[in-house]
Amino acid sequence: MAEFAELEVQDGVRMTWNVVPGTKQEATACVIPPAAIYTPLKPLLDSSSPLLPYSPLRCRICRSVLNPFAVVDYATKIWICPFCYQRNHFPHHYASISEDNLPAELFRQYTTIEYQSAAEGSVPALPPVYLFVVDTCMIEEEVGFLKSALSQAVELLPEGALVGFITFGSYVQVHELGFNHMPKVYVFKGTKEVTKEQILEQMGFLSQRTRPTMGVIAGARDGLSANSIARFLVPASDCEFILNSVLEELQKDPWPVPTGQRSSRCTGTALSLAASLLGICVPGSGARIMAFLGGPSTEGLGAIVTKPLSEPIRSHKDLDKGAATLNDKAVKFYEGLSKQLVHQGHVLDLFACALDQVGLAELKVAVERTGGIVVLAESFGHSVFKDSFRRVFQSSDFDLGLSFSGVFEVSCSKDVKIQGIIGPCASLEKKGPLCSETSVGQGGTSAWKMCGLDKKTSLCIVFEISKKEGDDAIAQPTSNQFYFQFLTYYQHADGQMRLRVTTLSRRWVAGPGCLQDLVTGFDQETAAVVMARLVSFKMETEAEFDPVRWLDRSLIRLCSRFGDFQKDNPSSFSLSPRLSIFPQFMFHLRRSQFVQVFGNSPDETAYFRMMLNRESVADSVVMIQPSLLSYAFNSAPEPALLDVAAIASDRLLLLDSYFTVVIFHGSTIAQWRNFGYQDQPEHQVFALLLKAPHEDAEAIIKERFPAPRLVICDQYGSQARFLLAKLNPSATYNSDNPPPPGGDILFTDDVSFQVFMDHLQRLSVQ
Predict the structure, then answer these.
(1) Which domain CATH number covers 296?
(2) Domain range holding 750?
(3) Number of domains, the chain
(4) Has residue 221 got a pLDDT over 70?
(5) In this predicted model, what pLDDT tens digit does every residue of 659-699 receive, in sequence order?
(6) Would the CA dihedral through 660, 459, 389, 315 be positive or negative?
(7) Cβ proximity of 660 and 722 under 8 Å
(8) N or C: which end of the chain has fewer CB within 10 A?
(9) CA-CA distance, 215 to 415, in Å (whole number)?
(10) E strand segments, 44-128
(11) What does the angle CA 747 – CA 748 – CA 754 come to, to the nearest 5 degrees?
């Protein structure tokens, strides 16, 4: 898999099949669809992606960009597009082109390239906009935590960034930050829908038809003056004092909450108002609504639960049985909000910090389609929130590289069609011959809107091979290469518009002797991640869907096609090393939080799936199959099998399951630590052993976003469940082999990996 990771370093792309099945029948038989996981803004090696200061050269017919796979006739100054075979003339400024004098886009190694043309570069960069929407229906302590986090954030905001501030509880308050002399607030009732016209009228946008003053933000539209807009969106440097005064005076929602009732919280109205305000002031420019929620919405649009505490918040069971009466209405409302935000080009970010659910499952559609970031924690004082929120604004080695206003397009060879994308984007409904009739995720288009994207945002593009067997007999013979091109237009962090172009070529094979070639090009990590995204998508969109059965059947079909065996002889079964880890990934996927929703709330499940749908292959693999390190005396830390057998009384374990990092002390180690041996000079080695996993855990937490939760636990302690839940149950309470001394057993009825493999071999050879 190392060579596939190298391809990712060069182009930010991983594909399930790097030798592609060449016909529809072949692709169907391969079970796992041809798909790519692409990270559009992945930082590449400087040498592998130059920035060109001119506009790209595009094909007249299919609009794909000139690339190293184009056939060039230097004598006649013509290039032939590899996608549609159209002959295109080079313009005058390419007159000096020759085999010894190539433009950068024709260099073989520059399969990924970026353009920032002079025309676009001359447009003044619009500053990014941050609109904070703050829930005040929380206990004083939580409000205090959030106030200190927000005042730190104001200092870290990018230079020139514009800031707006909205608070909400029973009512929504829009704060006017542009008037320093006296705090001014516009109040809206939380139970009523507020239209754009009412906002314009009530917030005094229409009363001041003064001429726009120069130097204030652009946006004098619909008769609005830049002055009236600048009352609500103010440069961070100009409003630091007033914003800090507003934060200092911020109190919990003053409306009394009767005993046995939930607070009146109008989340939907506040977010709708925020979206409309940005739509009025800065349509089409990079803006983020950053919502901080401390509980469920109980009032107005998008409410997910009623006020009496006697009614519990919807669970997975309620959603399955259709007993969550407010769910459909709330989802419909947030779908409408997502369409509005996508149309405006604005992002919704969510920081949900509460012991209870806040309605993330309903809000998911608006956050995901706008490319927003999401953080889920238990409190605004928790390190998960504080570390993650700081990372959003810090500009260091682990800078997120937040970008705006993206549009993503795909071109591919005529025998390949696009089924859709699973990931943080919204369809632009650009229909055409490239679109497959079968739709997956955001399908039926070859272009998508990405309102917000960052260095780690990864899209899963699912393809369909449309070429049927025997087609070549009729058509002209073509090369045995399929071509794919990904175009990403986006507003760079410096405010300038850029276009990144990645062009790939993959060999296709078909016919009886192609199995070995297909196996050689199979990337089992990417395949596992694509299957995880597909199964999560199907669980959310198909009513009568059995995820475990679907995964098992897919795996059996794959193994019976690519495994080596004698019919009806399970002991003869073997898999190529290129496929041998894939069953292990599937075993852990079917036990993961993406498939098993028992024990998780709908909000947690939505959060896990949103993170899976936006992260890279390497990070997603850790979510599916966590990594485990073992620390012992007299040996360096070493990877351990994700198995209950890894537990020993004289060892420490470090589990990284992406969302949680667990440091686990064996019983003897915990006993020695409690006796304080590490503080005695003669036990320096023990002190170093205790310290090692903490240093490694800190390194993981430092570079990950959102920050994972750190759990420190001991063998037989209550927190040990965070480790035990992820381990293969090779020794359980009802298995024959007792654990080794100092080991452990699991109290579960789950099958072990060995039993799973035995069943798989038996069914694959039938």
Answers:
(1) 3.40.50.410
(2) 615-763
(3) 3
(4) no
(5) 999 999 999 999 999 999 999 999 999 999 999 999 999 99
(6) negative
(7) yes
(8) C
(9) 53
(10) 51-52, 71-73, 78-80, 87-89, 112-115
(11) 115
